[in-house]
Amino acid sequence: MASDQPLGLLEGMATTRSIRRFRPDPVPVTDLNTMLWHATRAPSGSNRQSFRFVVLRDGPRAVQARALLGEAFRAEWADKRRLDGYGTGSGSDPGSRKGRMAATMQQFVDRFEQTPVVVLATNVRHRAPHVTDGASVYPACQNLLLAARALGYGGVITMWHALVEPQLRACLDIPDEVMLAATIAIGRPEGHHGPVRRRPLGELVYEDGWEQPAPWAEDPPGTRFTGAGPASLRRGTP
Amino acid sequence: MASDQPLGLLEGMATTRSIRRFRPDPVPVTDLNTMLWHATRAPSGSNRQSFRFVVLRDGPRAVQARALLGEAFRAEWADKRRLDGYGTGSGSDPGSRKGRMAATMQQFVDRFEQTPVVVLATNVRHRAPHVTDGASVYPACQNLLLAARALGYGGVITMWHALVEPQLRACLDIPDEVMLAATIAIGRPEGHHGPVRRRPLGELVYEDGWEQPAPWAEDPPGTRFTGAGPASLRRGTP
């Protein structure tokens, strides 16, 4: 950051992009500690603090786990790239949004094992799995990404660990009653943070009932819109 | 905030407490808009932006929905207060942590209908319910709470809408394929924000495998610890 002022809370949220291309710079453990400490300030059900973060750097099992993930990601992306036509139409233009997304994804999976830090976010269950269990771990994941941003790093959440979940559990000794909530890649961004693209606010906010417009919901001047991204992204790109 | 500087990103995360006691001040729609805009900057699966926020202020259905929620919360809290012994042991001392928690909860449920703003966070499903669905909505909920904090408000997430979910869906016309992710109460805090209490970081962060210590994980000087809160809180207090 150029300024001496710390990044503001609102500005930080508005400019934290998903980062999938990383510089090779290592992440000092002091920074990692700061990120995880802020992650764990997030709320959780009954303040039970059921979130646990398994950090994968260069330990022997971390190397195995990263290899498992990397291989799975590459296979999945190769399938998706083909099935979703990333090599055809606008996807064949490297300057198009779709083309740039494809190049970014390719680099993310190709270099996954070299990601400076991989954090596996988990949640220790206290009951049978429920669709709202994530309320106790995803707020902390968001804090982790925001804290990374505050320190000049960036990251992305992916769910593609699900492709090799049994192997990953075996490799890292993660018990069955623990939910694998997210794989979070973190490092110094090759690209830049900046404003994110979202649907117009009026499509996301209702008042007094489902699909009832909130007349006051509007984007500040200069907000960049988007739809849901290329159609091909709607099926599970991390 | 006393200072002219905006609240910093890291400081904001470290000092956003769950707020359950609100001053009656209304929340201007410009502030509500700013909060929800920042909420929607959060990531979601494939940037699908499947989160939708239903704002409940003083519209006719909002009033009904708040009454449904308030009644259910009061009944649930009355049961819990009794079953979990909030009137006995340290709970009978109004100055104890348990006693203060009980008083706060009592006020939260007693005045729920007067909560300045209630936001129902929802997620439009694109597949059968899955335990990781929350990855597309709870990061936005966390941003909402942080943005509230940045503007001098506070809030709390509760899951107790589950007690009256069918009635709430009927009242607000929320389709079955939409997940009710969280009820978030927002207003000007009666109390104060400040450092949160969490377990020592070393209990929450592992490296290279489940329950393997991360030797570098340590709380900064001055961090206040806690266990998981009073035992009686472990069964689902919002």
What would you note in describing this structure?
2 copies of one chain form a homodimer. Chain A is α+β, with helices and mostly antiparallel strands. The first copy, chain A, has 2 domains: 187 residues, NADH Oxidase (3-Layer(aba) Sandwich), CATH 3.40.109; 33 residues, no CATH class. Chain A has a 4-stranded antiparallel sheet with strand order 1-2-4-3. In chain A, helix 2 crosses helix 5, helix 3 packs antiparallel against helix 4 and helix 3 runs antiparallel to helix 6. The longest helix of chain A is centred in the N-terminal third of the chain and has 24 residues. The two termini of chain A are 27 Å apart. The interface between A and B is large, with 99 and 99 residues. Strand 5 of chain A pairs parallel with strand 1 of chain B, so a sheet runs across the interface.
Describe how the helices and strands are arranged:
The structure is a homodimer of 238-residue chains.
Chain A (H helix, E strand, L loop, with lengths): L8 H6 L14 H11 L11 E6 L3 H24 L13 H14 L6 E8 L13 H13 L3 E5 L6 H8 L5 E10 L17 E3 L31
Antiparallel strand pairs in A: 1-2, 2-4, 3-4
Helix pairs in contact in A: 2-5, 3-4, 3-6
Short characterization:
By secondary structure, chain A is an alpha+beta fold.
